[in-house]
Design goal:
Length: 136
């Protein structure tokens, strides 16, 4: 059964692998907290061990150049999608408070995005990310 909404993450293609994974993890946590309707029920194995819930829908990960990220981010904003951002400056901070301060210090147009995540209606997400390729 197809879902009506979609989660997508866009990461800058020239990042180191560990950075791509880190950015993806942080961004998806933003979607989980900011859009709780995306999270399913907890898991439990046959032995009765309980596990944390996960998203109830797929997460697509795209790779893009810096200009492509900027353009897709602008389209996502115009479509009023729920967005989490990760800027290059966040690689040098060590805590959430400093991360928020780094983002707060820069205007939207000047954000040095290395990635962002979106959640929203499937067609709006698809239009915002039009032209981007899935991460290899």
């Amino acid at each position: 059964m197809a879902t009506k909404t979609k989660i997508a993450v866009v990461v800058r293609e020239d990042l180191a692998v560990w950075q791509k994974l880190n950015v993806t993890a942080f961004l998806t946590s933003g979607v989980a907290v900011g859009c709780p309707e995306t999270v399913g029920e907890p898991y439990e194995d046959a032995s009765g061990v309980k596990y944390l819930p996960m998203f109830g829908l797929p997460v697509l990960v795209y790779a893009a150049s810096a200009p492509e990220i900027k353009q897709a981010h602008e389209r996502a904003l115009a479509k009023d999608l729920s967005i989490a951002v990760y800027t290059e400056e966040l690689f040098s901070t060590g805590n959430d408070e400093d991360n928020r301060a780094q983002v707060r210090a820069v205007t939207t147009a000047d954000l040095n995005l290395v990635g962002f995540a979106v959640h929203g209606p499937r067609n709006a997400v698809d239009k915002a990310l039009k032209g981007l390729s899935l991460h290899p």
